[in-house]
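Researcher: Let's continue the batch. This sequence belongs to Polymerase/histidinol phosphatase N-terminal domain-containing protein, and it's 337 residues. Same format as the previous ones, please.
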Amino acid sequence: LESHTHTTHSDGSLTPPQLVDWAISYGFDILFVTDHNEISGGLAATAYVDEFGLNEEILVIPGVEFTCCRIHMNLVGINQTISPTESFPSDEELISVILRTHELGGIVIVNHLPWSNGPEHDLYDHDHHICAIQRLQNHPTREQLYEWGVDAVESVSEGIIDLDTVIWNAKMGLPLLTSTDLHDSWVTPKAYTILKLEKEIDTNFHPTTNNTATVGPGKHLTQQAVLNRLRRNQNFGNQSQTKSINDQVSSFFYTSVGPKQVIHPVPNPLYDKFYPLTSLDFTYFWSEEKGMYGFNGEFCHEHKFTIHWQRIVWFLVWAIGSWIACEIIYCLLLVVA
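Model: Same format as before. Here are the structure tokens for Polymerase/histidinol phosphatase N-terminal domain-containing protein:
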């Protein structure tokens, strides 16, 4: 299972069909397509699978990455966009989003806690020191999220193992999920979620739409089976007793290296043609700090715009000095001639 991916319908570089092909190439049986605040990428991916008869190779489940300045969480198994009403939604709004997702038959997965709670390195104070400002400020705690009814919290994201969350998930009876958080074709997965689905597989069902996929000889997997297995009320429940990892509804395979790269982007010759123009970059004269983008048209941190007057002055000094030097050399050449 690959539980977290993006397409060109948000900030990914792969179209929905290309994303499906990427997942098949790296051996995934199940793919969650979770564009930022947009369901269309997931729906396009499922339509591609249906149109080209790929149901026997992969099960695609559409979703949305609910993205704001407080939290990123995947709403999986829904067929409509659910997005924040503001950059910093209230606790009440987050709770209502979780409830609405469950009403639509979906599940809620909280994403990449180490990244979300880490510092936003692009921000500097007046002395040009990096500020230790949290990337997603006022992020709910795991305990709050559990109380609000989320179904899972990512244990591995982009090759980073969140050991604290792995242990917490085992204690609370939540599944162990990994994600690539895929945006680009050259990325290789560092972890695979192994979902235990023996009891949910229908050996007599034949897939006709993307709601099903073949995962083995005569075994057909349904979207509902996957969601039900990951849904919190389907997991073992006594949170006061720590459970064995082997008791989880899922486990994961992790490798720091990843599999051999099987998808290689084709170089664009126009890049070499126009790359020299990038040297005409006058952003050297100013700095603009916005922090984390909230994917709703706003940024999550204070906007700072600084003009570097000293750089402008020295640019003019060097430019005028170079022009004067060229004129002197030209005059000397005329005298010699």
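Researcher: Any comment?
Model: The longest helix spans residues 309-336.
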